[in-house]
């Protein structure tokens, strides 16, 4: 029985192959020798993948001997048996082999170029690449991606892990994307390497540095000093009055204002994890006065347009404070407002947090609550504006 079975697989002999007549000769298990009229001969393997017939050439005879053709046949049959297409698998291998260089730096550049279209401004500024260029590629750039493991990554990022946590986190994230890109190219990489490295690095001891904030008692003097009718002075005034983040404020569009409410679109609400809903900001009479003063500068509906095109930059507002030799920065006014709310008012915690668009509850609790405390916030916004502008009521 076993001899019959063997013959069903290895029907041809080396002697027969040498003098085989023109035609197709079956060695068994899908391996064929195809002898041509011109005397040449070719090995062909027939397999079935997901019910579809596949044929692949295994090379010519005598360059590929009967023994080598059988070895190759065994290998590609196993691939087909596992449900993968042997022809495509071989193409992937050839593509990987054609890359003289499969170093991390080459594959990183390849991954970056493949993602450029999705990166918007990040691509142009090179910010996507900088965590890798500055901290990973100098040490690991020459390592073939197929050799990269969690210990390499751990050793490279360990110096940053407790000091520059955000940079290290970004580097790990980018590295994971590069490894997935390498896998898509058919390279045999460890897709779990970054997760394993994270486990080896442990919990970060990094303490976030807070943006310097101006004490709320000093805000009125600074506010009074913003006396010029310029987009930057008026934008900083409105930033202080509303407690908004810089990006939604700088890109404020007149369509977003309805009466005394400014509605920030959900997609502009950075920092509101898991939230996509719009956020309503009550505008005090002082804030409405600032908006009216800025209207003559509006262009294409944007209230704080810059002198060229687009809107004023974050840097413009920061530089204004830097030039005055202040430690505080624009984002810090959110802290000034939050501290004032805690120390100078009896606003409930959830209302005070809502003033800064901070989420205090789970999605479920918020869904049931169905309120953004607009009326309470309107009253507090008016009181903050009175404090800031020196008005008393």
Briefly summarize what is shown.
The chain has 393 residues and is α+β, with helices and mostly antiparallel strands.
Task: Please explain how this structure is put together.
With 393 residues, the protein is α+β, with helices and mostly antiparallel strands. It has three domains: 2-85, Integrase, DNA-binding domain (Double Stranded RNA Binding Domain); 104-201, Tyrosine recombinase, N-terminal domain (DNA polymerase, domain 1); 216-389, hpI Integrase, Chain A, CATH 1.10.443. The protein is built from 20 helices and seven strands. It has helices at 2-9, 14-18, 66-81, 86-98, 104-115, 121-125, 130-135, 137-140, 150-161, 165-184, 193-201, 219-225, 231-242, 246-250, 285-294, 314-323, 333-344, 349-355, 363-369, 374-389, and strands spanning 23-28, 31-35, 41-49, 52-61, 257-258, 261-264, 279-282. The strands form two sheets. The chain has a four-stranded antiparallel beta sheet with strand order 1-2-3-4. Strands 5-6-7 form a three-stranded antiparallel beta sheet. Strand 3 and strand 4 form a beta hairpin. The longest helix has 20 residues, at 165-184. The chain is elongated and about 105 Å long. The model is unreliable at 1-6, 120-125, 271-275 and 364-369 (pLDDT under 50).
């Amino acid at each position: 029985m076993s001899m019959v079975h063997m013959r069903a697989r290895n029907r041809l002999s080396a002697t027969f192959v040498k003098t085989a007549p023109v035609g197709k000769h079956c060695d068994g298990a899908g391996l064929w020798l195809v002898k041509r009229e011109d005397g040449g001969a070719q090995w062909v393997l027939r397999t079935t993948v997901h019910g579809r017939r596949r044929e692949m050439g295994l090379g010519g005879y005598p360059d590929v001997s009967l023994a080598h053709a059988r070895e190759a046949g065994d290998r590609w049959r196993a691939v087909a048996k596992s449900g993968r297409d042997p022809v495509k698998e071989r193409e992937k291998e050839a593509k990987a082999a054609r890359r003289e260089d499969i170093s991390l730096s080459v594959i990183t550049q390849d991954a970056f170029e493949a993602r450029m279209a999705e990166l918007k401004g990040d691509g142009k500024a090179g910010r996507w690449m900088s965590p890798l260029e500055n901290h990973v590629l100098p040490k690991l750039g020459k390592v073939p991606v197929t050799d990269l493991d969690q210990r390499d990554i751990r050793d490279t990022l360990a110096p940053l892990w407790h000091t520059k946590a955000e940079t290290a986190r970004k580097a790990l994230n980018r590295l994971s994307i590069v490894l997935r890109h390498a896998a898509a190219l058919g390279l045999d990489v460890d897709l779990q390497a970054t997760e394993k490295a994270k486990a080896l690095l442990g919990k970060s001891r990094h303490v976030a540095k807070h943006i310097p904030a101006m004490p709320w008692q000093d805000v009125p003097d600074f506010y009074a000093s913003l006396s010029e009718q310029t987009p930057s002075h008026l934008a900083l005034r409105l930033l202080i009055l509303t407690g908004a983040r810089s990006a939604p404020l700088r890109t404020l569009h007149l369509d977003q204002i309805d009466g005394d409410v400014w509605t920030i679109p959900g997609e502009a609400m950075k920092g509101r994890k898991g939230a996509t809903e719009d956020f309503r900001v009550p505008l005090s009479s002082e804030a409405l006065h600032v908006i009216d003063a800025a209207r003559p500068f509006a262009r294409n509906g944007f209230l704080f347009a810059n002198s060229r095109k687009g809107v004023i930059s974050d840097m413009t507002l920061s530089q204004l404070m830097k030039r005055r030799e202040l430690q505080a920065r624009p984002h810090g006014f959110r802290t000034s407002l939050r501290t004032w709310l805690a120390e100078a008012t009896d606003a409930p915690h959830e209302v005070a947090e809502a003033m800064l668009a901070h989420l205090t509850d789970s999605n479920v609790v918020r869904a049931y609550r169905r309120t953004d405390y607009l009326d309470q916030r309107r009253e507090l916004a008016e009181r903050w504006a009175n404090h800031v502008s020196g008005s008393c009521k």
